[in-house]
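FORM 12-B: Structure-to-Sequence Request
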């Protein structure tokens, strides 16, 4: 029983770590999209 609990804890930790990585990657993607949008706009100003 103890062994399975530690396995579950490890799984939870790895899931949380992956979630953090996903959030970080998503913010990078949004930043990139914003920069692309900025470069596509005509420089009228």
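FORM 12-B RESPONSE
SEQUENCE OUT:
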């Amino acid at each position: 029983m103890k062994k399975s609990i530690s396995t579950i804890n490890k799984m939870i930790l790895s899931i949380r770590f992956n979630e953090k990585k996903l959030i970080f990657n998503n913010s990078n993607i949004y930043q990139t999209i914003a920069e692309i949008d900025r470069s596509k706009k005509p420089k009228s100003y």
